[in-house]
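[step 3/7] fold_predict: job queued, chain A
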Amino acid sequence: MFQKIKDDFLGLLYIFLEVIVFFLFLWFVVKPFIFPTIPSSLEIQMEAYEKAYGKKMDIPDYLRETLPKN
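[step 4/7] structure written:
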């Protein structure tokens, strides 16, 4: 009886772990290929500032490091 409970629990645990690994694969491997060019909020703010004022926005170095390298 306990062996069946143990086997059922391990089977459900294995399925749960497979689902978690699958979603992690989708999140970290597939998603960057589907959405590679989504701009960060800082990039959106920089573009809006440039359109509004016609000049580049002054950005501190610690924020400039967070921008993607092109």
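[step 5/7] annotate
The radius of gyration is 23 Å.
Residues 1-37 form one domain.
exit 0
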